[in-house]
Design goal:
- It contains six helices and 15 strands.
- With about 220 residues, the protein is of the alpha/beta class.
- It has two domains: about 130 residues, 3-Layer(aba) Sandwich (Rossmann fold); about 70 residues, ACT domain (Alpha-Beta Plaits, 2-Layer Sandwich).
- A six-stranded mixed sheet has the order 2-1-3-6-14-15.
- A hairpin with a 2-residue loop joins strand 14 and strand 15.
- Helix 1 packs across helix 2 and helix 2 packs parallel to helix 3.
- It starts with a helix and ends with a strand.
- The model has no long low-confidence stretch (mean pLDDT about 95).
- Bound molecules: ribulose-5-phosphate.
Length: about 220
Amino acid sequence: MNDKQRVAHHAATQIRDGMIVGLGTGSTADCFIEALARRHREENLRVTTVASSLISTVKARNAGLPLVGLEQLTRLDVYVDGADEVAPDLTLLKGRGQDLVREKILARAADLFWVLVDPSKQVDRIGERFPIPVEVMPFAWQLVRTGLEAAGAHPELRLKDAGAAVTSAGGVVLDTRFDEKLPPTAVDRLLNDLPGVLEHGIFRELASTVFIAADGRIEERRP
Ligand code: 5RP
């Protein structure tokens, strides 16, 4: 078992009978889907799942997990996903995929948000390794880019094949680097207040537990 599989297995063992479980997107979330499906199959664990992306929907369906659509939910017990960066205060950077909007809706709506990482995801400051993905209404992308540049940031339109990459919510993404002196709280506020921004990759005060797998052990961090 590698670290991703180990942390995913650990989280899956903590799911209780009857829970409604949100499934994240990415290679770590894939390991969790497999571990949860194994418990469903082998231990008759009853769960209802909801996926944060088409790819996780397909993965969960192929693994035999009972799935419902996001639009059918009024609540969920736990959302389980990976992250691209984790800061010491458990602020996260997410969304290098195409499903940021669903991911944040599920992370915010769930009673618990469990984040599964290995030590390579730990950083001193959000944005240290990756630009912050800012998902934008397509018709507003140039105005949002101007707004971000006016705040001293450096946005770049994410491209795919011959055009802009389009997310599952129909947005385009400005991968944006901010001045490192600007605290994540200020960046979060700026992005939340900018009209045309659909969602962004800073997940602040959302994680209830971060599970970190290293050297065969699992460390649990809580805010
Ligand atoms: C997708 C995400 C993923 O959770 C993040 O990119 C981590 O992926 P991986 O588990 O493959 O390292 O936020 O939008």
